[in-house]
Design a protein that fits this description.
Blueprint (H helix, E strand, L loop, with lengths): L10 E4 L3 E7 L7 E5 L9 H13 L3 H26 L1 E4 L2 E4 L3
Antiparallel strand pairs: 1-2, 2-3, 4-5
Length: 101
């Protein structure tokens, strides 16, 4: 997975037709980005994608079952990494700072 830090005005091109651009960062959330893509390209938010896969898997769709298992495994790995990083930090006065070791 590619992780990119964008500044105001920056953008990422995916091929020649998809543009993901910086929109804002309110200090509490991850940077929100905009996506400009052709209408023929399906763009789905992760929660909707996973819900759709789950519904399809419930009907016995083997491809959906395999995709859902992969997505769930990737999500669990991301949660573990996030929790490891957060366990090394603490909040002080509403701001995050590293704990002294």
């Amino acid at each position: 997975m590619l992780h990119v830090t964008l500044k105001k005005g920056d953008y990422v091109m995916i091929g020649d037709e998809v543009k993901m651009s910086y929109s804002k960062n309110d200090g509490k959330m991850v940077v929100i980005f905009g996506v400009d893509a052709p209408r023929s390209l399906k763009i789905t938010r992760s929660k909707v994608y996973e819900e759709t896969l789950s519904n399809m898997a419930a009907t016995g769709d083997q491809e959906a079952i395999e995709k859902l298992e992969l997505v769930q495994k990737e999500n669990e790995e991301r949660r573990k990494i996030f929790n490891q990083r957060m366990s090394k930090r603490q909040y002080k006065g509403g701001q995050m700072s590293r704990m002294a070791n």
